[in-house]
């Protein structure tokens, strides 16, 4: 046999092996594709509702207008059980709305033990949905091991309130507290250069002083007093308590507890806040009396979860787009430049959503749902430009304010054709600021200096290792003042107000929705549904003849295919959560540190100019 034949046979064998491997890999790929395809088509079968069941609404974490994070990352995190706890306001409202007319839902069990924070306007929206559900004659049962202030607000709108015998109703009232860093900045020899316009623009105060300014103290006291009055009035009315009952409970809790021999849970019953103290087993027995025993587990009651119920209800009766629609775009979180994930407002990414509404011929009007304390002035302008483009195309825009629409959040609202706020919205804060810390004195203490040459006075400026020159400080202050002038003039023009008057209610002052309406900063008081109706009215759409179209970031085909594949694996008995490693202490600490650094460095306005409100009321 010739040497040439041996070499030929050798390479031929390699080729056949590679060709065989190619066929095997091709077959595997086809099997995966078919699994994904049929898994996507079939999916998990909708849960069949029992003939008589309780709808369990169990909000976890904070109530939000928009869940935070990239949709793909969040979907994967949900599959592996690692998603941050958040509950959409719209999910709770929709579940109650669908359950109202569903014959299988006998009552709603509002389980609030894991419920976190929420702005008062969000609580009011859910409470209104609870009240509407109860109008059907069906019952709402509220329960929790422990009621925080937010949880109790929702519970007060139920027919019956139960609490664990070791629980407590804790109503702390509203407050606004923050840390101040001026002494630490001085100790670290940092020059924290602050530029601002507005006597009440308090965002920068922690870097300039060690306590709250009198102006900010007055403004925030006015806010929290109004919120607490709204809270108390709503709870007293919903629960049928005597006037002043909530103030009495909060202010005299120690005295009431002493009278009850230290049994603080009994105080809640004695003061009428809770109907009865029940352990978990007793609560399950009560629910069994109402809706019967679960067909698969006789130790519990017949029920369906909110998530499973919503899947089926939206499939059968969900809002569908029509030939003419009101589009909904959510703008929630800090306003940042560029493209940002949901839970923050990106100048480019939110503008892209508005452009999609502009190019969609079925969209006749837009509701911009704003829940933001503001941020980048440049990004706010980018978003405002797209709102103007919609208006020029004959598509009216209605701004619907959530819990917060202040500073930059107010700016992207005020350019709308109509501005609607909740009475409990925090808004206004018309003011502008900039900050630029330099660390040259800090570096000197460890023996580091900076030196060099440049061609103009601006060479080497805006370096964190060099002191700012007087010229640079003057220039930035001029930019800040021009930004404030633009803000005030724009509000005056859009609201039809005198510029001097707008300046008098601006200066960084924050207002409730009630105040904003009286001051002429918003057109009307109302909720999300009022904004939908207003948008349809402005577009000339007849009631019942238009649909709703939510415009939001969508998964790419590849991302959807991967998620479908993971879902198929789960259906086949392989749970992705089983292979997800539990984070160790170092990973947990690193994650917390990363979050802290992101909060400190996330602001990215190209000019360093911001309209942001410290609007946290809790």
Helix content: 40-55%
**CATH-derived topology of the largest domain:** 2-enoyl-CoA Hydratase, Chain A, domain 1
Amino- and carboxy-terminal Cα gap: 90 Å
Poorly predicted residue ranges: 40-45
Strand content: 15-25%
How many domain modules?
3
Q: Please give the radius of gyration in angstroms.
A: 29 Å
> Class of the largest domain in CATH?
Alpha Beta
CATH-wise, what's the superfamily of the largest domain? 2-enoyl-CoA Hydratase, Chain A, domain 1
Summarize the model shown.
The protein has 618 residues and is of the alpha/beta class.
Your description of this structure?
With 618 residues, this protein is an alpha/beta fold. The chain has 22 helices and 22 strands. It has 3 domains: 53-169 and 274-315, 2-enoyl-CoA Hydratase, Chain A, domain 1 (Alpha-Beta Complex); 319-452 and 459-553 and 599-612, 2-enoyl-CoA Hydratase, Chain A, domain 1; 562-598, no CATH class. Strands 10, 13, 15, 16, 17, 19, 20 and 21 form an 8-stranded mixed sheet that branches. The chain has a 6-stranded parallel sheet with strand order 8-6-5-4-1-9, sandwiched between helices. Helix 2 runs parallel beside helix 21. Mean pLDDT is 87; it is low at 40-45.
